[in-house]
């Protein structure tokens, strides 16, 4: 003889209990996965502190980090500004001689740059390079500035 078969009514609600246990296990796996992902992909802390002041220097054909730096009366010629958005920065005085580039490894910085380019605020001839996103995929539209009733723009 085989094992006797019980229908759901005779099991006393075992099937719904098993479904609840499986659902809780699945939820636990999802939460564990998200916790591991967050631990491996931390959001960098932002500092509003300037950690280094650099003055009266000339930078030519090199990468220039700007996070946490204040550049006073410096000259930048054909440089790549490295900007990851992890700290405040300042430029006071000085000269920038084109061409310049901007490089980042921060998706939020890249997206902000792309938004500003898409709105026509950032010139399209300033390339943005990154290891994470396609470059220069956003081009500004034609922007028409309407005049008000007084004829002023």
| Total number of strands | 10
Order of helices and strands: HEEEEEEEEEHE
**Structural class, please?**
alpha/beta
For the record, the CATH class of the largest domain is Mainly Beta
What proportion of the residues is helical, as a percent range?
25-40%
What's the CATH architecture name of the largest domain? 3 Solenoid
SS element count, helices = 2
If you compute it from the alpha carbons, what radius of gyration comes out, rounded to the nearest whole angstrom? 28 Å
Strand order in the sheet with the most strands: 3-6-9-10
Write the layout of secondary structure elements.
Blueprint lengths: L13 H27 L11 E4 L2 E3 L2 E3 L3 E4 L2 E3 L2 E3 L7 E3 L2 E3 L3 E4 L2 H12 L9 E3 L23
Parallel strand pairs: 1-4, 2-5, 3-6, 4-7, 5-8, 6-9, 9-10
